[in-house]
Amino acid sequence: MSEQVLLQIAGVNKRFGGLQALSNVSVKIMQGQIYGLIGPNGAGKTTFFNVITGLYQADTGSFELAGKPYSPSAPHEVAKAGIARTFQNIRLFGEMSALENVMVGRHVRTHQGVLGAVLHHKAARKEEAEIRKRAMELLDFVGIAQFANRTSRYLSYGDQRRLEIARALATDPQLLALDEPAAGMNATEKLALRELLVKIKAEGKTILLIEHDVKLVMGLCDRLTVLDYGKPIAEGLPADVQKNAAVIEAYLGGAH
Ligand SMILES: Nc1ncnc2c1ncn2[C@@H]1O[C@H](COP(=O)(O)OP(=O)(O)OP(=O)(O)O)[C@@H](O)[C@H]1O
């Protein structure tokens, strides 16, 4: 199988006042990989996600997705370019049904404007039916089709996380960026999440994963980068990173 680079990011710096939150961070993620980003609290992982998804502007850095430069200047532009993300703190539309949440995600890829939808043009109606169908398929794919019509805030925590992933997948992303998807999950939910991520990978998607659960990261990721105080201190295969002295010192040897 010929390996292709999907995401290449080089030389990212980001400063908040006196704090250098990211120092010369670079990653190269190959198509179809699950790539992990780990590090102790405050290491800069979420800041890096926010930079690559357009929520924060980097001070420096170059960004390439599938061989094309992209400019992470605004979240909707990033979604159009083919990156979808979830958040550390779940951000669903709580009063909307599970199905509606996924349909909203799908709208990034649709053609009829808001006006078409409002006026219920024939083409808009047809597109809406297609969106609904695809959204149902995605709910089924993540394993919560039976809750399609349930108001999303009444879903269990694990199912809300699955719903967030379904909504992100609805944009047909080339890269799915997950910010601590296992946070707050019990062991059974984590196991199910792991299976879901393996299934998403099997569909040919590329995943960038921030995760605190080291066992999950080590078992799932093809490669990973470790950040500490905003600096990359190791990069490579999980088995090698696990043995790296700087990593053990900074992270694995501590709370884990
Ligand atoms: N908007 C901001 N303004 C000022 N400082 C910020 C901002 N966002 C993040 N920081 C700081 O940047 C550093 C990196 O934070 P970040 O949230 O990226 O770390 P993290 O690795 O994701 O941590 P955690 O594992 O706890 O989520 C921290 O010191 C944090 O306080």
Please give a structural write-up.
The protein has 2 domains: 1-82 and 174-256, P-loop containing nucleotide triphosphate hydrolases (Rossmann fold, 3-Layer(aba) Sandwich), CATH 3.40.50.300; 92-172, no CATH class. Helix content is 39%, strand content 24%. The protein is built from 10 helices and 10 strands. It has helices at 45-52, 75-81, 98-106, 114-119, 122-142, 157-169, 187-202, 214-220, 238-243, 245-252; strands at 5-16, 19-30, 34-38, 60-65, 68-69, 83-85, 175-179, 206-210, 223-228, 231-236. The strands form 2 sheets. A 6-stranded mixed beta sheet has the order 6-7-8-3-9-10, with helices on both faces. β7, α7 (187-202) and β8 (206-210) form a beta-alpha-beta unit. α3 (98-106) runs parallel beside α6 (157-169). It is globular, with a radius of gyration of 19 Å. The two termini are 36 Å apart. The model has no long low-confidence stretch (mean pLDDT 89). It binds adenosine-5'-triphosphate. Residues 16, 19, 21, 39, 41-47 line the site of adenosine-5'-triphosphate.
